[in-house]
Specification:
Blueprint: E1 15-20, H1 27-40, E2 45-49, H2 55-65, H3 74-98, E3 102-106, H4 109-119, H5 124-135, E4 142-147, H6 150-173, H7 190-206, E5 211-215, H8 220-234
Parallel strand pairs: 1-3, 1-4, 2-3, 4-5
Helix pairs in contact: 1-8, 2-3, 3-5, 4-5, 4-7
The structure holds thymidine-5'-diphosphate.
Length: 241
């Protein structure tokens, strides 16, 4: 397994690593690859995502992402993101960290700041305040921001989700249960995603110790290699020769 040589030891305290970026930047693929490398090096790894990550959170996710959800106010949207997160921290993230595990989370509060704070124009301050109140201000040890051209990555996400909802509709015509499609955010316009992108860059500039932007425009293998380097450097992980 590539990378097993690089990441050989980590401290006994758990580590919390989040993946961020626009839709379609390949976060989920990279999270899976990093989990594989860390496990090959002997670490206990929890892979999870937001919104979601718990049974209750996955129900909230369906409400938030289903394009049949109409007229949700920006504040209600933000509240639901935090409801999912508070449950996720209590039930999954904090217990795993307490057991010394590595938690890899696909999106966390930076998503709320970028999408609701910047995209929906609710502002950073309210997001950060809610994070303090509802999430005990839990901060990731490292955030990997996958950066690529907004038009390209969002186009990719739209095509992927359209294929998924076509498949679900097909299945439902054949009598299978209908799955919620996850297109609600992808229906936003370019200006929305430009603001989200701007939000991410502002967060990275504000917290350079925690947030590392990784160029996601190459192949998945190239991006994985870059991420292994960042994890090795930032989390002070021993490197073998
Ligand atoms: P995700 O499943 O990661 O989508 P993708 O794989 O396309 O990147 O996230 C679902 C959507 O939810 C995504 O469009 C971003 C949005 N989102 C927010 O708007 N705020 C949040 O706090 C979170 C966690 C996600």
């Amino acid at each position: 397994m590539p990378g097993a040589d690089i990441i050989s030891t980590m401290s006994r305290r758990g580590k919390f690593i989040t993946f961020e970026g626009l839709d379609g930047t390949g976060k989920s693929t990279q999270l899976r690859k990093l989990a594989g490398s860390l496990r090959a090096a002997g670490h206990k790894v929890v892979e999870t995502r937001e919104p979601g990550g718990t049974a209750t959170g996955e129900k909230i996710r369906r409400v938030l992402l289903d394009s049949a959800t109409q007229g949700l106010s920006p504040s209600a949207e933000m509240a639901l993101m935090f409801a999912s997160r508070a449950q996720h921290i209590a039930q999954v993230i904090q217990p795993a960290l307490d057991h010394g595990q590595i938690v890899l989370c696909d999106r966390f509060t930076d998503s709320t700041e970028a999408y609701q704070g910047y995209g929906r124009k609710l502002g950073s301050e309210d997001v950060l305040n809610l994070h303090r109140i509802l999430c005990g201000d839990l901060q990731p040890d490292l955030t990997i921001l996958l950066d690529s051209d907004p038009a390209m990555s969002v186009g990719r996400a739209k095509r992927r989700n359209q294929r998924a909802s076509d498949r679900a509709n097909n299945n439902s015509r054949k009598g299978a249960s209908k799955h919620a499609d996850e297109n609600r955010f992808e229906q936003q316009n370019r200006a929305f995603f430009a603001r989200v992108h701007e939000g991410y860059l502002a967060i990275a500039a504000r917290e350079p110790q925690r947030v590392v932007a990784v160029d996601a425009s190459g192949t998945p293998a190239q991006t994985h290699r870059r991420i292994l380097d960042v994890v090795g450097q930032k989390l002070k992980v021993a490197r073998s020769a």
